[in-house]
Each structure stands twice: as C-alpha cells, then as structure tokens.
C-alpha cells in the first residue's frame, strides 16, 4: 500500500488530551510576579474562555465543534499517510518507512489544524482582532487564512530575518488580508526599545511574541494567538496522530519508531501523543523521537548545560505567564539557521515533561545533514519538504540505515510537517545551487 486514505467522515470528532495520562502531574503555568498558579481569569486577558478551559483541562477527550471539523475537511483533512517505497529502496533498508502528509494543507503545514480552532473560538466569543508572531511565516500564514475564514482581523509580527529573506510568506499573509510587521517593529513600545538598543537586531520569536502580546493587551476586542508550546495547541494537533492511528490499523502495521521535528513541539505532540497513549495500553512498544537543530538544543542541551528544565517566560520581554519547560533562556538569540520554525528558545511543557520522564527521546541534527536528507527525499519521493520537516526526514533515514545494519524490519513513521516550496532559497543556499 503506497497511500492510505480515510474518508471525510473519519476526521476525528474529538481531540486527545494527554494531561490525565502523564507520568506525573503537569506543573501549572505561574504568574511571574506572585509565582502563584495562573488563574483562569488571568489567562483570559490573552485568550478566549473556551481556549483557557482547554489549556487547563484534565479531560482525556474534548469534542471538536462541528464547524471546526467542517473547516478541517475544507483544508484537506483527513491527510493521507504515504509509504516511502522509493526512499526505502534507495537506502536498501528492510525497514518500512511511512509519512503523514501535513504538507498538503493550503497554508503548507500542520499549523492550520490549530489556527482554525483558535480563530473559531475567538470569533465565537466576539473577538475582532488577533495578534501573533511568526518565524518563517508558516504560523502567520495559517492564522491569517483562518482569520479570513471567520472574519477576524489579523496582525502578524514576523521575525525580521525571515521578513527580509522570505518575502513570499509575507505576501501569502497579505493575500489573506493580514497586517504584517517586521519584528522588532516601531509599532509597539517593546519593539521600539529593542530597536533603540540594537538597531541591527534581526529579531527572534521571543521578541515578536512580546510585541504581539503587548498589542493584544492594549487593544480593544483584541486577543493573542500562539502557534505552538501551549497545551491547547498540542491538543488541536492531535488530529494528526488520531488519523495516523486509524491509517496504520487499516494496513495492519504497528509502529516501532515515530519521528517528528520540534520547534515548540506541536507537530511532534499532535503526531505522537495518541500513540503514547496506545503504548500505555500495551498496543505498541514504539520509540518517540523529537528532532531539533543542533544550534537550538532546548531538549538535548540538558547534557551540556545549555538548556534547563525550569520555569521560564515564553517571550523576551517577560510579559507572558511562566511555564515549566526545557528552555535555552528567554533572552536566547538563535543563530540564523534555515529552519526558521525551529528557532524558539522554549519547548511545550507537555513535551518537556515527557522528555524528563524518558517517555520520549530527543536527537539534535546539523542543518547540513537535514538539507541533504531533504534533497534525497525530493529525488526519491518527489516532494520538497520544509527545512523544519527535513529534520524528521534525516532522522528517519538514520533509523532506516540502522535497521539495515541490524537487518531489522522496523516500521518507521515520521510526520511531514510542511512543504518547502517557499523555502527554495534555503535549499539553494545550503546545497549551493
Ligand atoms: C512551525 C513549524 C514547525 C515547528 O513547530 P512545532 O510547533 O514544533 O511543530 C515544524 N514544521 C513546520 C513545517 C512548521 O511550519
């Protein structure tokens, strides 16, 4: 079987929330001043009530509103699961490699899965403007299109290095009617402060989040939307894993290794959490592998002391609640690497807790290796993957090679989080076209 499809009535009707199934209690988000657990009312300054309820929920399953399910179908769900036969052949591996196609959404990544839900709940509670940040532009594109769907205005702060090097994603956002500012910008107090102190600042996700939060807090009928990290975002992304479970079941496959790249952790969480629950029930004995760039080692940097598992801010200015997570520090300025979506200093508290408890594993790869893997994937499977997704591909290739050495028939499944058709300059730079 080369492609496993599901029918549109097989789009999940509930999200899976891993909170009740965690190996230990999830440390709550805390108020930076009082250090007390953040109260729902305090979250509500930034997010609509429905999302705050999801953020704090301990229910295992949460119903997906019918309007959201329909919108998910509109953007192409359920997404197919593919077998990478030609890649297997090129590697000469006895492993069977599968990948879930989150690259097929109109915005080009998994991010619309949560953008649609977030825009919907904001619209339902009378919010008129959403502010957000974006790195490479994937999240900004996804949220702008979701806002257009529900008649909301969208303001995006785009990390300056990407704003300058990726004009096409900016045009995508403008096509959906969004206002896009290079961050640090001159439209917020914090942006002006950063620009005064360092006029050549190329920006970071942490700075862009501070600007978006500042604008949301000061604005009328304005709220903020985050594309990763928070519990409700991980929740919305579980449609990926819930579908993949059904697809593997259909063809009688049991996964041995599940792989996804991690920035803030959402595509990894969405893909793996339902399978982690299966493993607890004895339905598989899989390994779960989060792949990050060597230059942004929020998980793997624990060994060298570069990262810590502790309370930290989600943004540079320290305006967000503090989250207990693996973090490189909220003032971390990442090197400008090509996988812009993986440059975040922190990691989802849920993914962090699972890493700390050895439920999941992490690997760090150098970007040269990931682009080489992306080239091989393009040549064998005919798909140009996002630079972020190339981290998952490179790891899957490494595991398939190890299976060859050990002569093991492993089932390796990775999440193809997005396509790279707007990232060709990155390929050109890295592969010297
Ligand atoms: C944003 C993005 C990522 C990283 O974000 P996560 O929240 O870790 O999933 C990965 N791949 C693509 C294509 C992205 O756009």
TrEMBL record:
It comes from the Archaea. GO terms for molecular function: L-serine hydro-lyase (adding indole, L-tryptophan-forming) activity; pyridoxal phosphate binding; tryptophan synthase activity. The keyword Repeat does not apply. Its EC number is 4.2.1.20. The modification N6-(pyridoxal phosphate)lysine is found at residue 111. Its cofactor is pyridoxal 5'-phosphate. Belongs to the TrpB family. The beta subunit is responsible for the synthesis of L-tryptophan from indole and L-serine. Tetramer of two alpha and two beta chains. This is Tryptophan synthase beta chain. The lineage of its organism: Archaea, Methanobacteriati, Methanobacteriota, Stenosarchaea group, Methanomicrobia. The gene is trpB.
